[in-house]
Design goal:
The chain is mainly beta. The chain is about 15% helix and about 40% strand. The chain has a 4-stranded mixed beta sheet with strand order 1-8-5-6, with no helix packed on it.
Length: about 210
């Protein structure tokens, strides 16, 4: 009986170390995901990717087109889930997801920019034990930064990650359907792709209530 608290503390310590290490070095198990990023975007996944050739019938890519940088939204860099009725800390943590790498490219057609954004991360099981599979919710937003920040476009995404107890599993999301109007002049220099975990994306959209009959 006295050994259980010691075991739980050891698991929690290993979890903390694993989360820190995952942000600096991708283990062999995630190599295939890194290769996928390279094939999708060209070059290294943590460097700006060159613009892809335009599809048939599309306008030529404007060499002056600015593809906004990707930034992880403050306060949305991790997604921690606790056991029911508990706080996601210590031995009550079931699993935690983190973002480790991003990549992006942009093309333009008829005044509309289509962004292709890749997000790579890991889900690490906690001391309370992760379920067999987890839903990882993410949101990508095109934002014009500055005084009075303006959201140009935003969209939520999800991916399912198969888990096993005491495991660390990589995940990848490639969003290729984020479209927004091309900014005019130098306005595009202040655009940013903000990404982050968004638990609200897991909630079903509320349906409009039918009008009451008079």
């Amino acid at each position: 009986m006295g050994e259980k608290p010691v075991i739980r503390a050891a698991v929690a310590a290993v979890l903390s170390i694993a989360i820190g290490c995952s942000l600096f070095a991708a283990p062999a198990a995630s190599q295939s995901i890194s290769d996928r990023f390279k094939s999708l975007f060209g070059g290294k996944s943590d460097e700006p990717a060159p613009n892809a050739p335009p599809a048939a019938g599309a306008e030529a890519v404007d060499p002056d087109l600015t593809c906004p940088p990707v930034s992880v939204r403050a306060g949305a860099s991790t997604f921690a889930v606790a056991a029911p009725g508990k706080q996601a800390v210590g031995n009550d943590l079931r699993y935690q997801a983190t973002i480790s790498k991003t990549a992006r490219e942009c093309t333009i057609n008829a005044g509309q920019i289509t962004a292709r954004i890749g997000i790579q991360g890991r889900v690490i099981a906690g001391p309370a034990g992760a379920p067999a599979s987890v839903q990882v919710p993410l949101r990508i937003a095109v934002v014009q930064a500055g005084v009075g920040e303006k959201v140009i476009a935003t969209k939520a995404y999800q991916t399912t990650v198969s888990m096993s107890e005491d495991s660390s599993v990589p995940f990848t999301i490639v969003a290729d359907d984020l479209v927004y109007p091309a900014p005019s002049g130098a306005a595009g220099d202040s655009y940013v792709f903000y990404i982050g975990f968004d638990p609200q994306a897991l909630k079903p959209e509320s349906k409009a209530k039918p009008a009451k009959k008079k």
